[in-house]
UniProtKB/TrEMBL annotation:
GO CC annotation: cell outer membrane
Similarity field: Belongs to the SusD family.
Principal location: membrane
Any Pfam family hit: SusD-like_3
Location(s), subcellular: Cell outer membrane
PROSITE patterns, sorted: PROKAR_LIPOPROTEIN
InterPro entries, A to Z: SusD-like_N, SusD_RagB_dom, TPR-like_helical_dom_sf
Species of the source: Bacteroides fluxus YIT 12057
Residue ranges occupied by any SusD-like N-terminal domain in the UniProt entry: 65-224
Identification of the protein by name: SusD family protein
Length: 649
């Protein structure tokens, strides 16, 4: 058993992510009860395995592969859940807008249930004291509730199995072990109840990356808001069939207030009693706000973070680290990654950020490209004649000029054309207009300017000297942004990166106080419950942290816009579109937007124009479509498990 004992401190250090790689343990359902209860250390090692079952959509989650996906799998290795939404796209244009892996983790649920029984048995035998046993059971129930959260948001109502079924088995009759699907409403109520109950048995203070009371209540807040939105907006994409008739999918509108109320209660408990606060809430300047917000995601400050996952350097053991800063680094600063630079934030998102007019309205300040204010996408921008130089495009002095004065969170979350990253000026340029007015776009043609200098459509000649629009549509070598923007959030530009995959150790923040503020504000606006004054205060606190000086009214539009800019690229937007039933409306042959900077050589001193365009990957497919049935995934294995299938499958 000695080889099976793993220090709990080590697992806490790495956030229990990948701890099973250190263990030479058989699956829990194949290990005898005696062996499991031999030592305190053995049980703590198994607790690491329990943590590893949590379906956190972190740095090693891939929407086409699944959880804890660290192995190289080609282009999919650089996939991200943001690419399934309107906030970003995969640069080469590949990938769909729905997940495509099977998540049906009842083996994990069984292992967690066995662990809970094992802990209780070990306490009875005196191997674990009551305090440790209580905490471990609560941690296991937290993990199990999180697993069910992962199931419910994908499938609706699912079978709830909260105990080991071995005693139910009748030889020759496996049907007694079959558990039917619960209704969607009851499934969400189970999840919310579990998170609420375990909160009372978990510590209030941080201990490495182990679960706390505030993490549990944060998950309760998130799950309750999800269920409330499903109830309120189910009829925006109503489905039909047996699963609907049995209420296995769909929640009655009448239940929305209950779920909003649970969200409000959990959020209030965190806000009022956790002692948590916004990191660097009162910046002295916009520049200070930019730095503070960027550091928030690199330093994982305890005062704002409720739940996070840590990593160790995976250079020697690849199951320990991640590759976020490597996969998404830019061509100009790439340390040697094979796949890189494929994270392309959309113009749709960039347009949402405010400037510092601060007139009390909170209105977005879309990027200005034309003097007449006719801001619309040019279709098939690469085709001759699509861009009309008779249109009144604004002539800018440099690449970064259109983005000056924008919200600090834009500057801290997104790399814009002409910005500095890792001490390098980033060239994201997609076209050139030669002195005679001939247009070159999406290829790196060159032309001689009136000043006698040679200019390139992509900003430079060498493929490692620019970061935008190269090898457009090439799945093998398309390592460039193709929307005109790249990601900065979570990127370790202040460190010298290794070229080794899984060598990045930046922790992933799953829940932070900012999300709780936004959950509360949304639930208050949607339900009319709670304290509207407090909700407005929390909404504006986030803007003040970004150096805004005014206060804006509490409206649903303001809350949802603030949610998008505050939580960009944190894995929330796709699921927000699901729970609010917005996916099928946006992706109804819809196309995400790009911004194509072009150098204009018609003047003695070159200028820049910026052309709005459809994202090329969406345009190639004549837009993307998300059908209502895709709000729920296909239940796997129905020929064996006898479960009712979801609509449309």
């Amino acid at each position: 058993m000695k080889k099976n004992i793993l220090s709990l401190a080590l697992c806490a250090l790495v956030g229990f992510s990948g701890c099973d790689s250190f263990l030479d343990l058989e699956p829990l359902d194949k290990v005898s009860g005696d062996r499991l209860t031999e030592t305190d250390g053995g049980i703590k090692a198994l607790l690491a395995n329990v943590y590893a079952t949590v379906p956190m959509e972190d740095f090693v989650f891939r929407p086409y592969t699944g959880f804890n996906a660290r192995d190289y799998d080609g282009v999919n290795g650089s996939s991200n859940i943001a690419f399934l939404s309107d906030e970003a796209a995969r640069s080469e244009g590949g990938g769909g807008i729905t997940e495509s892996f099977e998540y049906w983790p009842y083996g994990d649920i069984r292992q967690v249930n066995i662990f809970i029984e094992t802990v209780k048995s070990s306490q009875e035998k005196g191997i674990l004291n009551a305090e440790d046993a209580t905490r471990m059971v609560a941690e296991a129930r937290f993990a199990r509730a999180y697993i069910y959260f992962g199931l419910a948001k994908r499938y609706g109502g699912v079978p709830i199995i909260d105990r080991v079924q071995d005693g139910d088995y009748v030889p020759g009759n496996g049907d007694v072990l079959r558990v039917p699907r619960s209704t969607e409403s009851d499934t969400w109520k189970f999840i919310i109840k579990e998170f609420g109950e375990v909160a009372g048995d978990l510590p209030t203070s941080t201990d490495g990356y182990r679960f706390t009371k505030w993490g549990a209540l944060g998950m309760k807040s998130r799950a309750a808001l999800f269920a409330a939105s499903l109830a309120k907006y189910w009829d925006k994409a109503a489905l039909a069939g047996e699963a609907v008739t049995q209420k296995l999918v769909g929640i009655d509108k009448s239940e929305a207030d209950f779920f909003y109320g649970e969200c409000i209660l959990a959020s209030e408990e965190i806000i009022n009693n956790s002692g948590k606060s916004l990191y660097a809430a009162n910046p002295s300047s916009v520049a200070d706000a930019v730095n503070n917000y960027q550091q928030l995601f690199l330093n994982t400050p305890d005062n704002e973070v409720l739940l996070a996952r840590g990593y160790a350097d995976g250079t020697t053991n690849p199951n320990q680290g991640h590759s976020w800063s490597l996969y998404y680094t830019l061509a100009q600063v790439n340390p040697g990654a094979l796949r890189y630079g494929r994270f392309s934030p959309t113009l749709d998102l960039v347009d949402l950020y405010e400037d510092y007019t601060d007139d009390g309205t909170g209105k977005s300040a879309p990027i200005k490209t034309r003097a007449d204010g006719m801001e619309q996408n040019v279709t098939r921008v690469q085709l001759e004649g699509s861009i009309k130089l008779t249109d009144p495009y604004i002539q800018y002095e440099d690449l970064s000029a259109p983005f000056k004065g924008k919200d600090a969170r834009l500057q801290a979350s997104i790399i814009v054309p002409g910005a500095t990253y890792a001490g390098t000026r980033i060239l994201m340029q997609g076209g050139l207009i030669d002195p005679n007015g001939k247009i070159f776009i999406y290829n790196n043609n060159s032309a001689l300017g009136k000043d006698g200098k040679t200019y390139f459509a992509f900003g430079a000649e060498g493929t490692a000297s620019y970061s935008g629009f190269g090898n457009l549509g090439n799945s093998e070598n398309g390592n460039y942004t193709t929307t005109g923007f790249s990601v900065r959030k979570y990127m370790e530009e202040f460190k010298t990166l290794s070229s080794n995959y899984n060598s990045v150790t930046t922790p992933f923040i799953d829940i932070r106080l900012a999300e709780i503020y936004l959950n509360y504000a949304e639930a208050v606006v949607e339900s009319g419950k709670g304290d509207k004054g407090k909700a407005a205060e929390y909404l504006n606190a986030l803007r003040h942290r970004a150096a805004h000086t005014d206060n804006i009214p509490l409206t649903l539009e303001n809350v949802l816009k603030e949610r998008r800019v505050e939580l960009a690229f944190e894995g929330k937007r796709f699921w927000d579109m699901v729970r609010r039933r917005e996916n099928h409306q946006y992706f109804d042959a819809g196309m995400r937007s790009a911004l194509v900077p072009m150098i204009d050589l018609r003047q003695d001193t070159p200028k820049y124009i910026f052309v709005r365009a459809n994202f090329h990957g969406d345009e190639l497919q004549n837009g993307r479509t998300f059908t209502p049935q895709s709000y729920y995934r296909s239940i796997p294995g129905i020929s064996n498990n006898g479960l009712v299938q979801n609509p449309g499958y």
